Amino acid sequence: MTANLTLNAGDTIDPTTEEVFLRVADYSATILPGGFKRLANGKMYKFTGKIDGREVVVSVSNEGSPQAWKFVADVHQVQVTGVPLPPLQTPVEIGIGSNIGSDLVTARFFGK
Fold it and tell me: Measured on CA atoms in the order 15, 75, 30, 100, is the torsion positive or negative?
């Protein structure tokens, strides 16, 4: 999953100290504070590990302005159900601390 996050003026994020969650259709995952590593002087944060037995890689990187961030998540071996075929609009929700956003996106599936 790839998403662009735009914070309100004056808002900040720090995934090393804040809970991070994502939800796509009926799948959700939460990364507790301390799971992310701070890289590039706070311009990028990365989590690599297992959640509920699945390999998960999440990166959050600054896209130039202090309010513009890119969120990329890859979860291996997850079966998402509840998405009508052909893929129609699927609910997605992302949260970093108190900064939460949601949208409807067209799902694309990879693999089997």
Answer: positive
